[in-house]
Amino acid sequence: MENSKKNKSDFKWYAVNVFTGHENKVSIVVKQRAETANLSKYIKDIVIPTQNKTIIADGKKRQIKDKILPGYILVKMNLNKDTWPIIRDTQGVTGFVGAGNNPTPLNEKEVEAILKFMEVDTPAVQTSFNPGDAVVITDGAFKDFNGKVSEVNEDKSKVKILISIFGRETPVELDLMQIKLI
Q1: pLDDT tens figures, 156-179
Q2: Of the four, 14, 39, 140, 179, which is 20 to 30 A from 114 by CA?
Q3: Comparing C-alpha atoms, which of 176, 48, 67, 49 is closest to residue 124?
Q4: What CA–CA distance (Å, rounded) separates 135 from 58?
Q5: SS3 content of the chain, % helix, strand, coil (to 5)
Q6: Which long-range contacts (CB under 8 A, 24 or more apart) does 109-115 make?
Q7: What is the pLDDT of residue 45?
Q8: 127, pLDDT greater than 60
Q9: Please, how many CA atoms are within 13 Å of residue 67, restricted to the half-sphere of its CB?
Q10: What number is the average pLDDT over the span 17-44?
Q11: Is 168 exposed, middle or buried (0-12, 13-18, 19+ CB in 10 A)?
């Protein structure tokens, strides 16, 4: 690693392993350390690979940013003797991906694929409901009925609930937004 003038070809993407759950904190600290050392021009971009997901819990739909690669951040930088310690010595960083003390630049096509994947919203809805869960129906013709989840179809945002009607267990199909856990 030698200190060179910053050419476009000197900027490469590197994967940096960090403590899982510390990705945001590490990226902020790396940016601050680079600014303090007047080396921001050598660290072009820091990306935490995430994807928007819709989850349903307690009858409420919400958007979250789900980490695609937990425990990793991607850094586009000019790796040299000055920038190496800014990343390596940041609290929460366990190291660069590569062999020993030789960080391996990522393949540009791999990075492009990850960045494109980040732009696509996941069509499926994630829910916290599982077969066997006791639920209460919060909306519709069977409002306030208690039941048991028999099937979950996240792709269609539907759930089959077994409720007691006239003393018999009867399956009803509902939207995930119409139930909540008891």
Answers
A1: 888 999 998 878 898 999 988 889
A2: 39
A3: 176
A4: 10
A5: 20, 40, 35
A6: 111/13, 111/74, 114/47, 114/49, 114/68, 114/69, 114/74, 115/47
A7: 96
A8: yes
A9: 14
A10: 96
A11: exposed
For residue 42, the SS3 value is: helix
What is the amino acid identity at position 52? N
| Residue 160 to residue 74: CA distance in whole angstroms | 41
Phi, psi of 25 (to 5 degrees): -60, -45
Nearest alpha carbon to residue 80 among 39, 50, 119, 122: 39
Amino acid at the residue 12: K
Neighbour-count burial of 22, counting CB atoms closer than 10 A to its CB (0-12 exposed, 13-18 middle, 19+ buried): middle
Q: How many Cβ atoms from other residues are within 10 Å of residue 151's Cβ? A: 13
Cα–Cα nearest to 46, from 27, 23, 25, 33: 27
Over pLDDT 90: what percentage of the chain? 56
Q: What is the DSSP string of 119-157?
A: HSPP-SEEES--TT-EEEE-SSTTTT-EEEEEEEETTTT
* pLDDT score at 2: 43
Q: Compute the distance between CA of residue 169 and CA of residue 146 in angstroms, rounded to an integer.
A: 11
pLDDT band at 8 (very low <50, low <70, confident <90, very high): low
Per-residue pLDDT tens digits for 96-115: 998 777 899 999 999 998 89
